[in-house]
Write a structure and sequence with these properties.
Layout: E1 6-10, H1 18-21, H2 35-45, E2 49-54, H3 61-69, E3 83-87, H4 96-100, H5 106-124, E4 128-132, H6 138-147, H7 164-173, H8 189-201, E5 206-211, E6 222-226, H9 238-248, E7 253-254, H10 261-271, E8 273-277, E9 287-293, E10 299-310, E11 315-321, H11 325-344, E12 350-361, E13 364-373, H12 380-390, E14 400-402, E15 408-419, H13 428-436, E16 449-453, H14 457-461, E17 463-470, H15 473-496
Parallel strand pairs: 1-2, 1-4, 2-3
Antiparallel strand pairs: 5-6, 5-8, 6-7, 9-10, 9-12, 10-11, 11-15, 12-13, 14-15, 15-17, 16-17
C-alpha cells in the first residue's frame, strides 16, 4: 500500500484567449513548463506517482524525464516507472483542457481513459490522488468531479475577481495604494475619451488603457497613450479636450501587435476598459508576489520576484528571485492582504499572483498595486522546481536557504524566452546533452547551475526556458549568459556539419 503517497495528474491548461495564446511563440508547449517541477517534487521528493498530460506530447519525452529524474543525483534511478506521460497530437492554440476533453477526438478519449485508470488504481493503492492544473477552469473542475478527486485551483465562479477593475477595488479594500485611474469602467470609445480627458485635466499625460478581462494575458490587453502633444491650455473646455482625445486614441500603441485599433474598440464594447496613469521612471521595477490559499483556508506567501518585462515593459519574459530586499517585506505584507481579501470574496483555495510597481522616492521605495491574477503566474514553474531541488520553501523574509537555518542562500534568474531563429531545429535531447555535458549543468552538491524547461518549443519556434541558480545574483546572471553562449556555439557547430 502507498498510503498517503501523492499521486498527481497534471493538466496545465493556460486558458487565456486562444487567439492571444496563438501569438506567443511556442505557446502550444506552455503546458510542458511545469514538467520538471512535477517530477522532482512529486516523484523524487515525495516518492509519489505522476501522470503528466499534454497536447502535443513533449519531444524526446524519455530524455526529458530522465534528465529531470537525474537532477538530484544518484538514488532516483528506480523512479522512472512512477512517471507517465500521455498526450494528444494537437498543436492548435486551443486550451489544453479542450483538447483533452474533446468528445469527438478518439485519441482524447483514450487519454481520458488512461487518466481514469491511473486515478482508480492509485486510489485503490491508498494514495492521495489530486488533479493539478494552472488556473481556474470550468472544464477541468467538471473533469475532477467525474474523477472524484479534488482540484487545486480557485473555483471558476471566482474568475471575475481576477479582472482589472475588481483588482483595483480589492487593492483599495486591502489598503494598498494604486496608480491614479478610472473609478468605473468605460464601455465605449466615447466614455473612454471622457475618462482620458479627465485624467489629462488632472495632469496625467502618459496613460495605459486596460481591457477588463482575465483572458488577455501578458499585458496584451493594454494600450499605451502618450498625450504629450495634446496642446492643452488653461482655457481649453471639456468638450474640446474630449474631441482632441478622441482624435488621439487611434494613435495609441497596442501591446498586442496582432490587432488593430478597430479590433481593440470592439473589445472595449465587450469587456469594458479602465484607464491608469502610465508610470514612466528609469528606475521603475515590476515585482510580483505569488501566494496560495490552502484547503484549510490559510493564506500563504510562496515567493516574490522582480519580473523581466518586454514589449513596452508590459509582457512577462522572465524573473529574478528573490525580489529586491528594499521592498520585499512590503510585497509580502501587501500580497498576504490581497490573499485575505480574496478569501473573504469566496476564493477558498488555489494559487493567486499580485503584480506591483515599485519606484524610488525621497522617502524610500513606493510600492503600488498593479494587477491581481487568480492563477499561477509565470514565476510558478521556476520557483517550484528550484524549491523542490533545494528541498525547502521560502523563509518568512522571502529567501531560499539550503542546509537549514543559517545555511547558504540561493538566488536565481529565470527566462521563458531564450529565443533565436537559429535555434529552430534544436531538440530537447540536443539541449540536455549540451547542458549536462558542460560546467553549467545543475550540481546537486553545490545546489547551483542551469535547469532547462519548455524545451520542445525550440524545435519549431527556436525558443526554450531555463532557471539559473546561483549563490548570488552575479553567479545566476553569469549562468544565463553562459547558457546563451553554449547554445549559440551548438548552433554554429551544427551549421558547419
Amino acid at each position: 500500500m502507498e498510503t498517503l503517497r501523492p499521486a498527481q495528474v497534471h493538466i496545465q491548461s493556460r486558458e487565456c484567449d486562444p487567439l492571444i495564446l496563438g501569438r506567443f511563440p511556442g505557446a502550444t508547449f506552455f503546458p510542458e513548463r511545469l514538467l520538471g517541477w512535477a517530477i522532482v517534487d512529486t516523484v523524487c521528493r515525495a516518492g509519489g506517482r505522476l501522470l503528466y498530460v499534454t497536447a502535443p506530447p513533449p519531444l524526446d519525452a524519455d530524455e526529458q524525464v530522465d534528465y529531470y529524474l537525474g537532477l538530484l543525483g544518484a538514488g532516483h534511478e528506480g523512479a522512472r516507472n512512477r512517471v507517465s506521460l500521455v498526450g494528444v497530437d494537437d498543436v492548435s492554440a486551443r486550451w489544453l483542457s479542450e483538447k483533452i476533453l474533446d468528445p469527438d477526438n478518439p485519441r482524447a478519449a483514450q487519454v481520458r481513459a488512461v487518466v481514469r485508470a491511473f486515478v482508480d488504481g492509485r486510489r485503490r493503492a491508498g494514495a492521495d490522488v489530486r488533479l493539478n492544473y494552472f488556473e481556474p477552469s470550468a472544464p477541468l473542475e467538471r473533469f475532477a468531479r467525474e474523477l472524484g478527486v479534488p482540484g487545486n485551483q480557485p473555483p471558476s465562479s471566482c474568475i471575475p475577481t481576477g479582472t482589472k477593475h475588481s483588482g483595483r477595488r480589492l487593492f483599495a479594500e486591502a489598503g494598498i495604494p494604486v496608480p491614479a485611474g478610472s473609478p468605473e469602467l468605460c464601455h465605449s470609445v466615447a466614455d473612454l475619451a471622457v475618462e482620458v480627458a479627465r485624467m489629462a485635466r488632472s495632469g496625467h499625460r502618459a496613460l495605459v488603457v486596460k481591457l477588463d478581462d482575465a483572458a488577455s494575458g501578458a499585458g496584451l490587453g493594454n494600450a499605451l497613450l502618450d498625450l504629450g502633444d495634446l496642446g492643452l491650455s488653461p482655457g481649453t473646455d471639456d468638450d474640446a479636450l474630449t474631441e482632441r482625445v478622441l482624435a488621439a486614441l487611434p494613435r495609441a500603441t497596442l501591446v498586442d501587435p496582432g490587432i488593430t485599433w478597430g479590433d481593440y474598440v470592439r473589445m472595449i464594447g465587450k469587456s469594458g476598459t479602465l484607464v491608469e496613469e502610465w508610470i514612466k521612471d528609469d528606475a521603475l521595477c515590476s515585482p510580483s508576489f505569488q501566494g496560495r490559499i490552502t484547503e484549510g483556508g490559510a493564506v500563504e506567501a510562496v515567493s516574490t520576484h522582480d519580473q523581466v518585462l518586454a514589449v513596452h515593459s508590459q509582457s512577462y519574459v522572465g524573473c529574478r528571485f528573490p525580489a529586491n530586499a528594499a521592498y520585499r517585506h512590503t510585497l509580502i505584507d501587501y500580497g498576504l492582504r490581497v490573499g485575505r481579501a480574496l478569501r473573504e470574496r469566496g476564493v477558498d483555495r488555489g494559487d493567486y499572483g499580485v503584480d506591483f510597481l515599485a519606484r524610488p522616492t525621497a522617502g524610500g521605495w513606493q510600492v503600488l498595486g498593479c494587477e491581481i491574477n487568480l492563477r499561477g503566474t509565470g514565476t510558478k514553474h521556476a520557483f517550484g522546481i528550484v524549491s523542490a531541488l533545494l528541498g525547502t520553501r521560502a523563509t518568512p523574509d522571502g529567501r531560499l536557504v539550503v542546509g537549514g537555518p543559517g545555511g547558504a542562500e540561493r538566488v536565481y534568474e529565470a527566462s521563458d524566452s531564450i529565443m533565436d531563429p537559429r535555434y529552430v531545429g534544436l531538440r530537447p535531447a540536443h539541449l540536455i546533452r549540451a547542458v549536462t555535458g558542460s560546467p553549467l549543468g545543475y550540481d546537486p552538491e553545490r545546489a547551483t547551475g542551469v535547469v532547462l524547461h519548455m524545451m520542445s518549443a525550440a524545435a519549431e519556434d527556436g525558443k526554450f526556458g531555463a532557471v539559473c541558480i546561483g549563490a548570488d545574483r552575479a553567479e545566476a546572471a553569469a549562468l544565463l549568459r553562459g547558457l546563451r553562449e553554449l547554445v549559440d556555439e551548438q548552433v554554429r557547430v551544427k551549421s558547419r556539419m
